[in-house]
Design goal:
3-stranded antiparallel sheet; about 25% helix
Length: about 350
């Protein structure tokens, strides 16, 4: 049976209390072209007996309204600066979008790997393709036919990275459960995007030769940095380290060699490296080249497995699987990691054959 999702209600959620009306500048790292997209995450919850759907839905809506007070930039609208130097947020409490829906799908169908990259698209009915043309935050709660639930969250990547997203979702869960109030949030969200801006108001000479991630065909792994960032900072605070090698060396020397390359690339990422990247993307408009590149991201420490009244999710993954490879902890079995990646349909059989043969030899 084909998946069907019926939207019952769409409502704009604004901050529950007055918030500042002003313009906030996004950082140089936030404004990078490859981050001007929506990251859509799907959390799937198993069926629970005696759940009051209306009450749970209202709790989530209420929690969103309250969390948007300290996180009020997420209720604003992203736009380009007048001088074209980057992005900014117009904060006037325009609001986030909440969608209440039901589906004929079951919990057990959603925890299986989808056959197509668009299979779960309806679980986030509004996908903001252009972050300059829609709300930066969209949340959809879909109740499944067997009593399970799916929570899909679409958020503009230019406003926060994975760690910041986990921090935000954790606050939503705490407020929905009544565990904490706004005054008790820990950590409290911190904007301070100037901390990852250029050091001066004039262009400085920084060579891109030391940053192969800005050249074509790079193998890159993201690493979050901490150049004295305050607790609660939820902006993009990661740069790419680059591990370069030849096909021949990778084939002959094997997995251990590749792991050492990645570890060395990560070791290079220090405060000086980060500052060089900030200068490059600020003044020279450099952009990470993602063509012919496998990007891997670690979700295990992002804390996105929130409980809003029906337990923790059994599955956490992307709404739209793509070329980004995501590593996510399996909440029911903490020692396991789920790997999520999409491959072209023409090579699925070969890909599975490779995995099964490699696995059989371990």
């Amino acid at each position: 049976m084909a998946t069907s999702v019926l939207v019952k209600q769409q409502v704009v959620i604004t901050p529950s209390h007055p918030t500042p009306n002003h313009i906030l500048q996004l950082s140089a790292l936030d404004s990078q072209l490859f981050l001007r997209l929506t990251v859509a995450t799907l959390l799937v919850y198993k069926p629970s007996n005696g759940v009051d759907r209306a009450s749970i839905t209202n709790n989530v809506k209420s929690a969103l309204g309250r969390v948007l007070v300290p996180y009020y930039p997420l209720a604003g609208r992203v736009r380009s600066r007048a001088d074209g130097s980057g992005l900014e947020v117009d904060c006037r409490a325009q609001g986030a979008l909440f969608i209440d829906a039901v589906s004929n799908s079951t919990f057990y169908e959603l925890v299986r790997a989808p056959k197509r990259t668009d299979q779960w698209r309806e679980f986030l009915s509004l996908h903001v393709v252009d972050v300059l043309e829609g709300p930066p935050l969209v949340v959809q709660l879909t109740w499944l036919s067997d009593g399970g639930a799916a929570l899909a969250v679409g958020i503009s990547h230019c406003l926060c990275d994975g760690t910041g997203f986990g921090q935000f979702l954790s606050s939503v869960g705490q407020l929905a459960m009544g565990d904490r109030g706004l005054d008790d949030m820990n950590p409290k969200p911190v904007w301070s995007r100037h901390l990852l801006g250029p050091m001066s108001s004039e262009s400085t000479c920084v060579s891109s030769l030391n940053h192969p991630e800005f050249r074509s065909v790079a193998d890159i792994s993201g690493q979050r940095v901490n150049p004295n960032l305050p607790s609660g900072y939820y902006g993009n605070a990661f740069v790419f380290g680059c591990a370069e090698t030849s096909v021949r060396d990778l084939t002959v020397k094997g997995l251990g060699y590749a792991m050492k390359l990645v570890m060395r690339a990560e070791e290079r990422v220090g405060d000086g490296y980060v500052r060089e990247v900030v200068e490059l993307v600020s003044w020279n408009q450099y952009c990470v080249d993602s063509v012919c590149t496998l990007i891997m991201t670690q979700w295990a420490r992002h804390g996105v497995d929130i409980d809003f009244g029906i337990g923790k999710p059994v599955h956490v993954g992307p709404v739209y699987p793509g070329k980004i490879c995501r590593l996510v902890l399996v909440s029911s079995v903490p020692t396991l990691i789920q790997v999520s990646i999409a491959v072209p349909s023409s090579v699925v059989a070969q890909y599975l054959y490779f995995l099964e043969n490699i696995y059989a030899k371990i």
